[in-house]
Amino acid sequence: MAKKSMVNREVKRAKLVARDAAKRAALKTVIKNQELPMEERFKATIKLAELPRNGSAVRLHNRCQLTGRPHAYYRKLKLSRIMLRDLASFGQIPGMVKSSW
Question: Hey, what CATH topology would domain 63-101 get?
């Protein structure tokens, strides 16, 4: 089980990313537009740098929905390998059976 503070930090980051996504996208389009004057693009770069760093989507990290474990994460199921195996063993995931031979 991951620390509650780490899970809460990721939730906070996800909220910041969702809040700032439109603003970041608008600033990035201004920065990439070569037809605008250099001063205007530079001002947009400064405004982008002033936004909180945790609002960037790169800062997000995938975590297991049940335990908060950050490693060995399956994106399709949003679970870690440990919880995936436990749930598969108990028959909780449709169509998945723990193999044995």
Answer: 30s Ribosomal Protein S14; Chain N (4.10.830)
